[in-house]
Amino acid sequence: MLIEQTSIVMITKPIYFPIVSAFGWDPVWFGAIMLLNLEMATISPPFGLSLFVMKGLHQKIQQWVTSIVRPSFRGPPTFWSWQS
User: Fold this and answer.
1) 54, CA 20 to 30 Å: which among 8, 24, 45, 67?
2) Distances (CA, A) of 74 to 12, 62, 71, 77
3) Which residues have CB under 8 Å from 31's CB, separation 6+?
4) In whole angstroms, what is the distance from residue 79 CA to residue 84 CA?
């Protein structure tokens, strides 16, 4: 089942917001990190929704996009370590 980021945020907001508030975290930063993770999920194989859309445009584009996107996954762990 594939769901877009907006739908995931709307479904999980009532669950996560009380937990985030109870821990004393800033909801804006939590939302930014959550959206960053959701964006990584849409472009990462094997179930990236964006990859399915691009593969529909051209058959060999999946290897090309995967090779370009893979180095960008090094950035978010560095960002997360700076936040803690």
Assistant:
1) 8
2) 26, 20, 6, 6
3) 9
4) 9
> Can you say how many angstroms the Cα of residue 14 is from the centroid of all Cα atoms in its chain?
19
Tokens 């893979």 -> residue = 70
Q: Where are the domains of the chain?
A: 5-83
- How far is residue 9's CA from residue 6's CA, in Å, rounded to a whole number? 5
pLDDT per position as a tens digit, 31-83: 888 888 888 777 766 667 776 777 777 767 667 766 766 666 666 666 666 66
Crossing angle between the packed helical segments 49-57 and 27-43, to the nearest 10 degrees? 40
User: How far is residue 81's CA from residue 58's CA, in Å, rounded to a whole number?
Assistant: 37
Closest CA to 29 of 66, 70, 76, 83: 83
d(CA 65, CA 50): 10
